């Protein structure tokens, strides 16, 4: 709306300005008498057409009893219009030809509003981008397994869809056939494709990069994860923070300040005997004191920070939680599923003959047909190390382990009971004792009665956990870890990560009491968790952060939701909180300082030395102040919210 009005008003303003007698006198040319009607007629059209948003906005502010910038602008242009109209009609003996200043004033004010709306629109474009992630059509499989193209609205839970390589997943679902890498960056912020196979969950809007998948639809429309993310982003952008409430009160106070300053200015100049200067100074005060910059200072920061966070996989549900994060001095991480992956992995290995590759290959082959979580971890480690030979005659022995024939040899993999009848070299026995004391599970592998070596399995630490804790320490934040695991296991993990304090053997129902304990010591606490049993602690903490999307209950209890399983995003939340607050402070300081200096100048305090501000110049200065605030807020986009490589953490921004 403001863009179109600006261009049409600019077209009307050009002849109004050129045909104005005052402007002609200023530049030293004369206006033909036949064109005397141009400024009054087109100026009136401009006042009604271009000034309409301000006039209607002023009425709305009066009705809501919340005077603000629209009322100030409306007062300024109305005073200019009435004074100019009375002069043109020769009523009251006035000589106040302000048609050209009225025209410039409206045009500049429309430009300022257009730029403001454009900035806010760009900040909110993340919502449109999220909506655009879904395809228009989906290939639904009929009863014969043949794909048919249907609109997304016709999909329902239980349908099976075909997603081709390069296509977007149309709805949340489960893979029933196929294996592919998916680009989930638009949901989690993680740039690397993630492997998914049959039985794995997929999210609407993600992209299949290298193969085709058949997906059973589990959720459509507003029930998808993407729709939930969009709702959270929208709620966060619409929510008001403490700083916004302060800015709103300041804007209302500024109206009364400007109105009072305008009355005093008019009376002072009237007493000085200069009616024309009184009207011009009053208009300038009303225009230059418009709290545009103040009104834009906070909303634009909120919009940009929320949109930038969403792109990085940080979903801000509660603006107050994000504001409080900058003051947090203790972060309490749940161990399982947060700092660790919540599933076993091979963390160390010692081969009796020094051949670790052979140890892993034979152990992985023997465990290949087992469904036990420890067996899957051994197979995963073996596959990552190299080719795994085929096995036959697989047999599971309850309480002992598994046996299988691999390359003609009988391979047995199991716990300590497996090596009861074989000789264990000293270096293997020492490693096993060390692993056991750390809380790891020890698995042995034997081939034809000869010990191959031992493997240590433990809940694998996430790759970014150590860096996240180090970065929090660098910001003066104390890091604690809470877990239901035994103290040796917990302290082993804590020692590897550099955690300051450990709460071990904590029952799920007691997690929130540990948050309260930290708060009782004077800490401002952020709790990071992913499960149902974390919900009370998330709710009690000063800032609750659900990681890896968590469970529905965890999400409801958290103020911030991390879409990815990346503890380093907690550092990103802290960084975003600090940067957002800094921009709010800078914008508010600029907006208030600008008015404190510009209003006295507009009133004419420097008139005795020959310096006065014309209304049009005041409008330009007002628009410039708005642009400064908008540009400063845009710098938030430079804040890095993801690590830039495997070792660095990106630029901290300004």
Structure report:
- With 654 residues, the protein is α+β, with helices and mostly antiparallel strands.
- The chain is 50% helix and 18% strand.
- It has 24 helices and 22 strands.
- The protein has a 7-stranded mixed sheet, sandwiched between helices. A 6-stranded antiparallel sheet has the order 2-1-3-9-4-7, with no helix packed on it. It has a 6-stranded antiparallel sheet with strand order 12-17-16-15-14-13, with helices on both faces.
- Strand 21, helix 22 (552-557) and strand 22 form a beta-alpha-beta unit.
- Helix 6 (99-123) packs parallel to helix 24 (615-634) and helix 10 (242-271) runs parallel beside helix 23 (569-603).
- The longest helix has 35 residues, at 569-603.
Low-confidence stretches: 645-654
Gyration radius, in Å:
34 Å
Mean pLDDT: 81
Strand content: 15-25%
Strand tally: 22
**For the report, how would you describe the main beta sheet?**
7 strands, mixed
Q: Could you say which structural class the secondary elements and strand pairing correspond to?
A: alpha+beta
* CA(first)-CA(last) distance: 34 Å
Which strand order does the major sheet show?
10-22-21-20-11-18-19
